[in-house]
Amino acid sequence: MMDTLKRFPVKYIRDFIKKDYKLRDVCYICNSVDNLELHHLFSLSQLWEEWLRKNDIKKIESVTEIKELRQTFAKDNEDSLSNKYLVTLCSKHHKKLHTIYGQNYSNYLVPKIKNWLEIQKEKMSG
Ligand SMILES: [Zn+2]
Ligand SMILES: [Zn+2]
């Protein structure tokens, strides 16, 4: 079949979501302008897995199919995926966040991490 999936479905989701993400000019914590990276507070793969389960989707076989599904997925998760949960961090602070909370933390930690970001920011300004 011509449009068989060549990558994991979540990769197609990531491409689609990321096109709307914008990097800010400075690190949220320290205002550095160097080595800026994006961190999205919600794990996309976790949202995706949960959405598949909720909609009882067990198998995705074609690119056409994933392209249709991702539209609905993005709509259903509009809030969690939005830019308000997108944080621009310098590589040092981005690394620090993942050192503390792990590379793939669970989404229930999001409020905790938001709080951590605020505390780090305050420390820098104080
Ligand atoms: Zn920083
Ligand atoms: Zn990150």
Commentary on this structure:
By secondary structure, the protein is mainly α. The protein has one domain (9-125). Helices cover 52% and strands 8% of the residues. It is built from 6 helices and 2 strands; from the N terminus they run αβαααβαα. A two-stranded antiparallel ribbon has the order 1-2. α1 (9-18) crosses α3. The longest helix is centred in the C-terminal third of the chain and has 16 residues, at 110-125. It starts with 8 loop residues before the first helix and ends with a helix. The model has no long low-confidence stretch (mean pLDDT 93). One zinc ion binds at residues 39, 94, 98.
Characteristic key phrases:
126 residues; mainly alpha; two-stranded antiparallel ribbon; binds zinc ion
Mean pLDDT: 93
Helix content: 40-55%
Q: β content, as a range?
A: 5-15%
Encode the helix/strand succession as letters. HEHHHEHH
> Unreliable stretches, pLDDT < 50, 5 or more residues?
none
Overall number of strands: 2
- Report the biggest beta sheet as strand number plus sense, adding barrel if it closes: 2 strands, antiparallel
Structural class given helices, strands, pairing? mainly alpha
> What Rg, in angstroms, do the CA atoms define?
17 Å
Shape: elongated
Side by side, the strands of the main sheet go: 1-2
Bound molecules: zinc ion
Count of discrete domains: 1
Distance between the ends: 60 Å
Number of helices: 6
